[in-house]
Amino acid sequence: MKKVGSQTFKPQNPPYLISTGVVAGPFEGRGILNEYLDHVYDDLNAGQSSYEAAEKHMMLNASLICLNKARKTPEEVDLFLAGDLLNQTITSGFTALELAVPYLGIYGACATSAQGMGLGALILDGGYASLIQTATSSHYGSAERQYRYPTEYGYQRRPTAQWTVTGAGSALLAVEGKGPRITLITLGKVWDLGIKDPFNLGTAMAPAACQTLIQHFADTGRGPRDYDLILTGDLGKIGGALLVQLVEKEGGFNLRENYNDCGMMIYDREKQDVHGGASGCASSALVVFGYIYRLLKEGRVKKVLLVATGALHSPTSFQQGENIPAIAHGVSIEA
Amino acid sequence: MKKVGSQTFKPQNPPYLISTGVVAGPFEGRGILNEYLDHVYDDLNAGQSSYEAAEKHMMLNASLICLNKARKTPEEVDLFLAGDLLNQTITSGFTALELAVPYLGIYGACATSAQGMGLGALILDGGYASLIQTATSSHYGSAERQYRYPTEYGYQRRPTAQWTVTGAGSALLAVEGKGPRITLITLGKVWDLGIKDPFNLGTAMAPAACQTLIQHFADTGRGPRDYDLILTGDLGKIGGALLVQLVEKEGGFNLRENYNDCGMMIYDREKQDVHGGASGCASSALVVFGYIYRLLKEGRVKKVLLVATGALHSPTSFQQGENIPAIAHGVSIEA
Asked: Which CATH number does B3-174 carry?
């Protein structure tokens, strides 16, 4: 069996990440990732009538850019795996409608980038497809009004609050081609630290990232030094610092040398005050499909472990007093 | 490649459906499926403080019953694939928390039963797991207040409206064992007929079911007569009748002999007036994991094609004037 240890899956022929596409909103365009974005929108609405329509436009655009770069058409794609934060993952469903490709909706909240790559790699290596596209997105406006308050309300953000990234990312995985390869996939369990505060999601998600990281090391015999870079998706400042402590305490691993969180790699901390950092499905998608993909292709890093994290609550579960459970999926991407 | 035609996937060693578990609410217990249910709850709340908590209790219970029947523990499960209708699929996430099993959230609305079985079969046959559990659920109370109106409002239902099934179903798929096998999986594209009425979902979903059915026949060289029974998930009375016409017109296939819709197989039409029929993720889950599974195990039917359908809208997309896109995934289950 192509399973290593209890939660890690190892493709026999690691699929290639042959192309990516990333688009983002105006605020993200003024951040430090600018030069790695394929398109930056001038306004949050992206010329559409609503934030939700804008988000769909972004996911579709990222997906088409990704296809164009690889000189592929939607007709050549065997399967589209996508997910997002909106209720009933409408962004993904409406994008799949436009692409007219066989579609499986996935939901891992902000862990969707890793979930899509990981699941895509399993299906490709299983011999079921030759080309799989994955996509994910988030939008500050649509997420704020769904999860918290409409942006027009102008509530004061707490120091732990994170800023939902506006943007979308897509990647094409293929059995053959050029590009970095997906070598290992560690699928996470759901964890609950007892956190109830939706303005402190980094803390709620850190234990899930910790468990997936430690399990990845246990399953593979690898350690932090086997990677040039270990990334989490959107733990932000507070969750990221907590993770470093947890991993040291629970597993004895030192993350202080080569760890970073995608949520700290998007905005310009000097000029853009986003409090706890960035969050949302697009956080890891922009960083990994944009910046890291470029680094891997140029050989500036060789082995990257992405552990994308997702908070699995809803506004309803929060209002009913439930804790915020979280999950993290790990994907090793190697040049 | 283990792909047949453009949308159908064929496992080399078709995985076994070694066990199922189904639980339902009181109204469903008074329907015609009663003797095939593992547990019927006395009230909609299932002893919990909210409809949402009740739905989670039901999915967890169905999953545990399913495991018990196969004398398996959650520790033996490689992967849990689950999805539901609630925002951010909280039922599935909270159930995965209790089971403490590696988890991938999926979203296909009411097509989730087929999506879970199909995806599970691909991962198993790909050599990545030996035991995969899938689950789905829906709940009349939680779905009504999320998608339409709170039940306390007492609005008058239209003739086309369908009744959301309260219940949950789970299935265990294994590389080795006894039971019916998943032989073919046809993954659907998203379709949009231009329907905007959330009280007429059967009509919105019929074209997706039609496309998946015709593609399944084209990909495999099979026709309706190759199956003892062809089932859709929850097209109901109106959508089902439309499907029969569409499939005849678009593909020249006659479904009049061995076709039924799960939404017409749950309630007692003499005594339970549910207008257009049943709907919800639990519609196909109760019928297929309960009734059909028994028929297959007893050899009373040998080849069944389930085409489960899902409407991919959200209340937000509806309010913003968008059409209701739909998807359908097909799974051939053979004794």
From this structure: 3.40.47.40
